[in-house]
C-alpha cells in the first residue's frame, strides 16, 4: 500500500532535521519515504559556492569542502544585524575565499559606546563589563545593505559568511544553536506553524 504524505508532514520532517529532535526518532522521521530523503553529499568533496548581496555588487566565492563550522545564533546582536529572529553563519579558511565588490565595514563592540544590555556572540558580556573578548567586523554592501561576510579577531584564519547570502537550500545545516535565552519561542517549534501561504513550486 502506498502511503501519501501531506506538505505539512514533509515540512515537519525537514524542520526536525534542521533544528534537531533531541536525538529521538519521531513517528514522522520513522515514516519518511525514500523519495523525501536528501542524498548525503561527501562533506570533504570540493564545491564552489557563491554568496552575494541582494543587488549582486558584493560577492564571496568559497571553493573547498563544506565548512566545519555552521552555527545558528539567537543573540540580540545577530537579531538586530539580520532583522530576523536568528542568524546562520559559516566559517571558511581564508585561502578558500575570494571576495569581489565594494563593502562597508561595521565593527562591534562599537568603540566608545556604552555596554550593551545583553550578552552577544561577539564574546562580550554587556551585562557585567564594558570590555569585549572579541571584535567582529561585518561587511555589508553599500548599495543594497545586505551583510555578506565578517571577520572575528579571535579567528583570523577564517572568513565568516552569512548562510542566507548563498540562497542555497542544500547548504549544510547548523551544527548547533546558541544564546537560546534570547530565542523567539516559536523558532523551536517550526513544525507546528501553519503552512497555508502557498509559496511552493
Automatic annotation (TrEMBL):
Top-rank taxon, per record: Bacteria
Record's signal peptide: 1-30
Classification via PROSITE patterns: CENP_V_GFA, TAT
InterPro entries: CENP-V/GFA (IPR006913), Mss4-like_sf (IPR011057), TAT_signal (IPR006311)
One Pfam family per UniProt: GFA
Keywords tagged on the record: Lyase, Metal-binding, Signal, Zinc
Annotated SUPFAM superfamilies: Mss4-like (SSF51316)
CENP-V/GFA domain mapped to chain residues: 49-187
Family note: Belongs to the Gfa family.
Protein name, UniProt field: GFA family protein
Amino acid at each position: 500500500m502506498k502511503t501519501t504524505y501531506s506538505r505539512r508532514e514533509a515540512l515537519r520532517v525537514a524542520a526536525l532535521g534542521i533544528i534537531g529532535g533531541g536525538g529521538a526518532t519521531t513517528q514522522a522521521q520513522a515514516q519518511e519515504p525514500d523519495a523525501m530523503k536528501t542524498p548525503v553529499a561527501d562533506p570533504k568533496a570540493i564545491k564552489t559556492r557563491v554568496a552575494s548581496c541582494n543587488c549582486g555588487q558584493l560577492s564571496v566565492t568559497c571553493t573547498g569542502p563544506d565548512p566545519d563550522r555552521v552555527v545558528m545564533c539567537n543573540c540580540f546582536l545577530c537579531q538586530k544585524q539580520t532583522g530576523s529572529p536568528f542568524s546562520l553563519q559559516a566559517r571558511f579558511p581564508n585561502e578558500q575565499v575570494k571576495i569581489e565588490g565594494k563593502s562597508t565595514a561595521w565593527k562591534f563592540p562599537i568603540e566608545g559606546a556604552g555596554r550593551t544590555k545583553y550578552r552577544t556572540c561577539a564574546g562580550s558580556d554587556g551585562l557585567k563589563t564594558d570590555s569585549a573578548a572579541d571584535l567582529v567586523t561585518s561587511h555589508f554592501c553599500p548599495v543594497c545593505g545586505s551583510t555578506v561576510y565578517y571577520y572575528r579577531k579571535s579567528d583570523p584564519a577564517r572568513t565568516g559568511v552569512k548562510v542566507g547570502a548563498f540562497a542555497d537550500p542544500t547548504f549544510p545545516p547548523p551544527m548547533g544553536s546558541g544564546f537560546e535565552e534570547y530565542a523567539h519561542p516559536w523558532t523551536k517549534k517550526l513544525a507546528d506553524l501553519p503552512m497555508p501561504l502557498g509559496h511552493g513550486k
